[in-house]
Give the backbone structure.
Amino acid sequence: MRFLMAIVMAMANLAKGLWNGAEWCWRNSWGLLGFGGSPTVMPPKQLDLPDTDEVEIVRDTVRNQQRAIDAMLSTPARKVQAWAAALPEQRDTIPLSGLTDDQIDWLEIRLTDEQLEILAAEKSEHKVNAALAGIEDAILGVPSVPSHSMKKKSRPSIDISDRIHRFRFADAEHQPRQLH
């Protein structure tokens, strides 16, 4: 019985080998005759690359845009005005480097939307710098940055009459000059 099983298995393997060989011959014979059957390599497509002049124009445009952005954000006052003019979702893209923590707190937390509009519309960079420095009423309708340094330097209040008295009698201690 084992002998018969071995013969049947050998015949099955032979049939399978013959079938695979015939299939290989069939595929390759059609490919050799030029009717297909074997994959062919497609010629490469012509790439539609932009002209080098166009590339240079785009590069120059990008450089000029970057220069304009750098000029717009070159001073703290310009940064503050750009931040105030930006939409709320775009404000994170504007760097606030060069500003103190008090100035950033003033800009982001203390000012209302109406005050930010007034700040963005301000034409004088000098007034924005004054507001950043803590000078009161630098921009009408916008409070200035609160100055902590003035609170730390608590000067004794001098009455105006004391100042006038000292001014008038500053020379009283000296003898008047006599002319000969």
